[in-house]
Amino acid sequence: MKVSTKGRYALRIMLDLAMHNSGELVPLKDIARRQGITLKYMEQIISPLSKAGFVQSLRGSSGGYRLARNPSDYTVGSILRVLEGPLAPTACLETEINECPRAESCPTISFWNGLNKVINDYVDSVTLEDLVNEETALQSDYVI
Amino acid sequence: MKVSTKGRYALRIMLDLAMHNSGELVPLKDIARRQGITLKYMEQIISPLSKAGFVQSLRGSSGGYRLARNPSDYTVGSILRVLEGPLAPTACLETEINECPRAESCPTISFWNGLNKVINDYVDSVTLEDLVNEETALQSDYVI
DNA sequence: TACTTTCCTAGTGGTTTTATATGATTATAT
DNA sequence: ATATAATCATATAAAACCACTAGGAAAGTA
């Protein structure tokens, strides 16, 4: 029942971009330095986010990444799903293909359905903007 | 973010015992047959449940297992945790040893804490008795 | 004793995770 | 044009984890 590092790092990358959301492009090298993750590993993580249209990119000198939308338009769940796939606690809930042949008579499936719902409802109730506000508060606490 | 087969099978074993909760000992062989899981694999799953005091056992002919308490006294969460360990979505929430050095300044930890809470609150809100009632209802539906 | 059932330990093939490394491609600045 | 700086694509690999399989010891019953 663990979220993988890819999912966690994706969230940190997106939050880093949200904290530097001036419209300027942010080179991945800078994010890597701030977050303490190697550039090469980050490339693997941001690539699916780029393909999913979550970030805009520009190559070349003074290139980099920036958010494609407002921080409030990203739920944490939507970010995690790009890297993790469905956040379902069992495979039988993921797709119809994976559906268990005994689903109709399964006495535990409604339990798993309920768990699936509370997980997804929660991760979709928090946006990147919420995390930005939290980080801003943390930083001002630090100054005090 | 998946619950392993051990956790899912543990739940099915406990539910099977709850459905046959007459006080009689139930041989694992019978559960294995009903659930379509090999005996040898089930032994590995019920062993931690036995050591945790969740089931009582007796060896030898006409031996077997039975629940140690009433079905209403087991939350699904308590059963899953025996096989899965803590149901925390990140390692840093599991133990103080795993705590991240940057926990104090981490802008995502409160998000993960919230996810941890909704997961554990939910799994502890459902008991084995609830699943027994569900299965009984399913079976009577089937008869109709 | 013969049989049944739990209990204990070890091994194994496969997949996933978590990276690291190398290099190619593309775009910008000068 | 050239150098620079970034994205993009693959390949590799150690380590951990998963999902079993297997053999036999111990303990209880008939």
Report on this structure.
The structure is a homodimer of 144-residue chains. The first copy, chain A, has 144 residues and is mostly helical. The first copy, chain A, has one domain (5-140): Arc Repressor Mutant, subunit A, CATH 1.10.10. In chain A, 53% of the residues lie in helices and 6% in strands. Chain A has helices spanning 5-19, 28-35, 39-51, 76-84, 109-123, 128-143, and strands at 55-58, 64-67. In chain A, strands 1-2 form a two-stranded antiparallel sheet. Chain A starts with a helix and ends with a helix. At the A-B interface, helix 1, helix 5 and helix 6 of A face helix 1, helix 5 and helix 6 of B. Chain A binds a DNA duplex (30 and 30 nucleotides) through helix 3.
Chain-wise SSE layout:
The structure is a homodimer of 144-residue chains.
Chain A: H1 5-19, H2 28-35, H3 39-51, E1 55-58, E2 64-67, H4 76-84, H5 109-123, H6 128-143
Helix pairs in contact in A: 1-3, 1-4, 1-6
Chain A binds a DNA duplex (30 and 30 nucleotides) through α3.
Give a brief rundown of this model.
2 copies of one chain form a homodimer. Chain A has 6 helices and 2 strands.
Structural class by SSE content of chain A: mainly alpha
Cα-atom radius of gyration of chain A: 18 Å
Which architecture of chain A per CATH?
A: Orthogonal Bundle
Number of strands of chain A: 2
The residue ranges of chain A in which pLDDT falls below 50 over 5 or more consecutive positions are none
How confident is the prediction overall: mean pLDDT of chain A? 93
Q: What is the CATH class designation of chain A?
A: Mainly Alpha
Return the domain count of chain A: 1
